[in-house]
Large-conductance mechanosensitive channel
Amino acid sequence: MIKEFKDFISRGNVVDMAVGIIVGAAFTSIVKSLVNNLINPLIGIFVGKIDLSNLVWTIGDAQFKYGSFLNSVINFLIISFVVFLMVKAINRFRKKKEEEPAKLSEEAQYLKEITELLKKNEGK
């Protein structure tokens, strides 16, 4: 059982996923700081309140904290946009790598030329 667990942990996918989760958590704290310290004050200029998390809609005894929800939406949009940019950059890199033609060996190139000549002669 310990050997199986060791094999599971040492797989590249699991380690990559763990690194991604750790970096994602660190990135989330940076985005929260960005939203709370820069974007909220900017929105606050137009709304009239700097801290959106204090925006509350009250009906009777019920309080709807829509400011906190707005903060979460802003966080989500920023994180989603950055992830989109990262995936787009990775896909562009992969396309370039895939588009590079494989260099044929001398023998394969010779066979390719013979095939092309045969195709040309068939039409005559």
Notes: Strands lie at 57-59, 62-64. The chain has a mean pLDDT of 80.
